[in-house]
Amino acid sequence: MNDFASTPELILLPAVDVADGKAVRLTQGEAGTETSYGDPVDAALDFARQGARWIHLVDLDAAFGRGSNAGIMRKVIKQVRGVQVELSGGIRDDRTLQAALESGAARINLGTAALENPEWAADVIGRYGDVIAVGLDVRGTTLAARGWTREGGDLWTVLDRLESAGCSRYVVTDVTKDGTLQGPNVELLREMTARTPKPIVASGGVSSLDDIAALRELVPLGVEGAIVGKALYAGAFTLAEALDVAGH
Predict the structure, then answer these.
(1) SS3 letters across the chain
(2) Hey, what's the signal peptide range on this chain (predicted)?
(3) Terminus of the chain with fewer CB atoms < 10 Å: N or C?
């Protein structure tokens, strides 16, 4: 136990995914698999009360190209004062990036745009540095683009390109695990940490406090944090319990 107590803390980012104005969870990122959990502001405030320092806030409608919850995103960010927000979903050009930057989010997560428009992504990374993270949604070693409906190229090819652009952080999701409560893809994360010195935020599959403990053991390798979603909403454990295991 002593060894574990000395492991650096894992930053937890409880997820608030918004579709049609409500907090929802998907299974394997598929549109149409939403389970609704009510008001996104209430969900975020509940996480803040339990001790969250970060929240991962996703506009699913914008990610799927079927609308926008921009007003609700801004409201969530304003309400959870003192908690930093990583904002994701549909940020793929100067206009959507500007709106995201002006929302008060501490960090912007680029997804599809980084794959489909690498020159623009490289320019944004160069301009905004640490404010920009790139989400890499992975099936095996193939990237999934635009709401996970299309393939976006080879993971390692894209990673090399983003490294050259100076990307400061990666949010890595194993699409096959996301929303399934089957445990995180530790092998993928280990391989990622071997290929980049940049911090990695793990996403997808966390189902138990043991999973959080396993991810915390990867912190010395370069896994900085973990996004936790469905397990919290399904009541597998509380955020307070998870933060305790993560070393908060």
Answers:
(1) CHHHHCCCCCEEEEEEEEECCEEEECCCCCCCCCEECCCHHHHHHHHHHCCCCEEEEEEHHHHCCCCCCHHHHHHHHHHCCCCEEEEECCCCCHHHHHHHHHCCCCEEEECHHHHHCHHHHHHHHHHHHHHEEEEEEEECCEEEECCCCEEEEEHHHHHHHHHHHCCCCEEEEECCCCCCCCCCCHHHHHHHHHHCCCCEEEECCCCCHHHHHHHHCCHHHCEEEEEECHHHHCCCCCHHHHHHHHCC
(2) none
(3) N
- Rounded to an integer, what distance in angstroms lies between the CA atom of residue 38 and that of residue 2? 40
pLDDT in tens, 9-28: 999 999 999 999 999 987 76
Residues whose CB is less than 8 angstroms from the CB of residue 105 and which lie 6 or more positions away in sequence, other chains included: 57, 77, 85, 86, 87
pLDDT tens for each residue of 28-41: 677 777 788 889 99
Non-local (6+) Cβ contacts of 94 within 8 A are none
Catalytic residues: 17, 137
In whole angstroms, what separates CA 129 from the centre of its chain?
18
